[in-house]
Specification:
Layout (H helix, E strand, L loop, with lengths): L2 E3 L5 E2 L1 H7 L8 E3 L7 H7 L4 H12 L5 H11 L13 E3 L4 E5 L9 H5 L2 H11 L5 E7 L3 H10 L5 E8 L5 H8 L6 E6 L3 H12 L2 H9 L2 E5 L5 H20 L9 E6 L4 H11 L4 E8 L4 H8 L1 E3 L20 H8 L4 H14 L1 E3 L2 H8 L2 E5 L2 H15 L5 H17 L5 E5 L7 H9 L1 H4 L4 H12 L5 H5 L9 E3 L4 H10 L1
Parallel strand pairs: 5-15, 6-7, 6-9, 7-8, 8-16, 10-11, 10-15, 11-14
Antiparallel strand pairs: 1-2, 1-3, 4-5, 12-13
The structure holds pyridoxal-5'-phosphate.
């Protein structure tokens, strides 16, 4: 299998796509085809471990990796030292037709761990395969969760470094503490005086800047990406769509072959795109429901066919979805354009120059056969956290609650009775103050710090506070650099010199 660029160029191997992150023409790498998992093969996966599902699914995409390399990488990434559930992504049930796929049992309590525990292994293998001797310098823009997950994944991995840019003041207290207390000799954390889109645009600019590449090269460094634009981030996420499915079949909730829906809280469109890839590989998915917060640019896109980013940026209590430019949508556009890279290029050019583009009625109608989209603002999200707790005794984080709320809208509007899985992307403890406030009201949390709020949640849910949250109280702050949006290049070069 080879990889093309969404903008028409490139024909590279899987290891090159993973090592380089972004194609030279600014496009994203996409697989030349979707390997098929037949119903028979799906049946043989049923009842086997997460690791087995992962190795089986990865190996068809990563053709220039050996099966042993993939199996070893999977074992290392999903070892029980780092995960507090042996199934990695357990499925909880809220009644017969609604199930919650918990993707937050890894080291940083958000679903990003699933990909970022594996990516460093794939990147170091990819560097070897391409005889790359330079240090692989990972540059990351984060809306809150990717940063810590990348830092944990790459911390002290030989031959790599990891530099994270986050919107200063734009992430939750727990997210910020998690990042700035990171240990390791090769980790760097920099606050940007701007929002996530500024940080992401800044990092993308660096990747596209030949002069920056030369300066890095002179320092013996190869810039690479751990954002979800990297195919190595995307492919591990396909796996849990399959494990969720076989898990429900195993428990007798689903018949093999029966269709299901997934509702996914969406920001950069990586998670839900992995679901779309799973569907293209043959997983019986009927609808992928795209849930946004008040930054509802994707809702508008799926309803009108027009993507427009010139709008107010809202800070919400689901900060990992506070995004107006969803990078991975480009991969879906590539499929919607019947793999016409020139068409995608022209849309992306319009987006860069005018802040919007339209794909036309016919294409959006076609996409609507699979995708449905809506959003929930902070009030609806808080109410949903309360409703789910009252009805099911289950405490959701705000991102997951956005998805749950949008699922409610979907069912009200369509009456679709299909069994649906909610992708639960973060532990409620990661956003303890907002979750506690949603459940108990403003007065009950007035003046409480995140840990006191976590203690309230522990009492309500009966789920113990994860050690990662307890640990934050004792760890020293090791990173305190803040830079302006236009000073990101200097900040990286400076950090990497140290
Ligand atoms: C990153 C993130 C999302 C959004 O995922 P995308 O792949 O960017 O769409 C949702 N919820 C949480 C908790 C996240 O960390």
């Amino acid at each position: 299998m080879s990889f093309f660029s969404t903008r028409g160029g490139a024909c590279v191997t899987a290891s090159q796509a993973i090592l380089w992150g972004l194609a030279r023409d600014g496009g994203l790498y996409v697989p030349s085809m979707f390997p098929q998992i037949s119903p028979e093969r799906l049946s043989t996966l049923r009842g086997t471990s997460y690791h087995n599902h992962a190795a089986r699914i990865l190996r068809d995409f990563l053709e220039d990796f050996s099966i042993t390399e993939i199996e070893d990488a999977v074992q290392a990434a999903y070892s029980l030292d780092s995960w507090d559930d042996p199934t990695i992504a357990p499925v909880k049930s809220l009644g017969d037709t609604t199930h919650v796929l918990e993707l937050f049992h890894g080291p940083t309590l958000a679903f990003k761990d699933i990909a970022l525990k594996l990516l460093p292994h794939l990147i170091t293998l990819a560097a070897e395969k391409n005889n790359e001797k330079r240090e692989v310098s990972i540059l990351v823009a984060t809306s809150g969760d990717t940063g810590k997950a990348a830092l944990e994944g790459f911390k002290d991995v030989p031959g790599t470094s990891c530099t994270v840019f986050y919107p200063h003041g734009g992430v939750s207290r727990v997210q910020e503490l998690q990042m700035v207390t990171t240990g390791g000799e090769n980790t760097h954390v920099i606050g940007v005086e701007g929002n996530f889109d500024n940080a992401q645009t800044g990092v993308k600019k660096l990747f596209g800047d030949a002069a920056f590449h030369e300066k890095m090269d002179a320092q013996g460094k190869l810039p690479s990406s751990a954002n979800s634009i990297n195919f190595g981030r995307l492919v591990p996420q396909i796996v849990y769509y399959f494990t969720a499915y076989t898990n429900l079949v195993n428990r007798g909730v689903l018949r093999m072959g029966q269709h299901i829906n997934f509702v996914v809280p969406t920001g950069n469109f990586g998670d839900i795109l992995a679901g779309y890839y799973a569907m293209r590989m043959g997983l019986p998915i009927r609808k992928l429901i795209c849930a946004s917060n008040k930054n509802n640019v994707l809702t508008d896109f799926f309803r009108t066919g027009t993507y427009h980013t010139h709008r107010t940026f809202h800070k919400t209590m689901s900060p990992s979805m506070d995004i107006l430019v969803s990078s991975n949508l480009e991969r879906l556009l590539y499929e919607a354009a019947d793999r016409d890279g020139a068409q995608v290029s022209s849309w992306m050019k319009q987006l860069a120059e005018e802040g919007s583009f339209s794909v036309g009625a016919q294409r959006i109608e076609k996409l609507s056969e699979v995708f449905w989209a809506d959003y929930a603002d902070d009030n609806m999200t808080a109410e949903e956290i309360r409703r789910v707790y009252e009805q099911h005794g289950y405490v959701m984080d705000p991102h997951t609650a956005v998805a749950s709320c949008v699922l409610k809208h979907y069912r009200e509007e369509t009456g679709d009775p299909t069994i649906t899985v909610i992708a639960a992307t973060a532990s409620p403890y990661k956003f303890a103050p907002d979750v506690a406030r949603s459940l108990l009201g403003d007065e009950a949390v007035e003046g409480l710090d995140f840990f006191a709020c976590a203690e309230k949640l522990e009492k309500l849910s009966g789920v113990a506070i994860p050690h990662q949250v307890r640990d934050l109280l004792a760890l020293p702050v090791r990173h305190d650099t803040v830079c302006a949006v236009d000073a990101m290049e200097a900040a990286v070069l400076d950090a990497l010199k140290k």
